[in-house]
């Protein structure tokens, strides 16, 4: 018997923008900490072709 997964409800634009900003702040704090410690991070992006991985990588860099 296959299980159906209920769809994830969409976030409101304001809530999405607020959450995205908070996550971006956390990423900047992580980057600053790792630079200060002289450490490196490997990040793996997984997804289908044309799924936006390239744009995401460019924004992070």
Q: Count helical runs.
A: 2
Structural domain count: 1
- Counting DSSP E segments of at least 2 residues, the number of strands comes to 0
Distance between the termini: 45 Å
Structural class computed from helices and strand pairing:
mainly alpha
Mean pLDDT: 85
Strand content: under 5%
Radius of gyration from the alpha-carbon trace, in angstroms? 16 Å
Helix content: 40-55%
List descriptors.
54% helix; 61 residues
What does this protein structure show overall?
It is a single chain. The protein starts with 12 loop residues before the first helix and ends with a helix. The mean pLDDT is 85. The chain contains two helices and no strands. The protein has 61 residues and is mostly helical. The protein has one domain.
List the helices and strands and how they pair.
Elements: H1 13-37, H2 53-60
Short description:
This protein is mostly helical. It contains 2 helices and no strands.
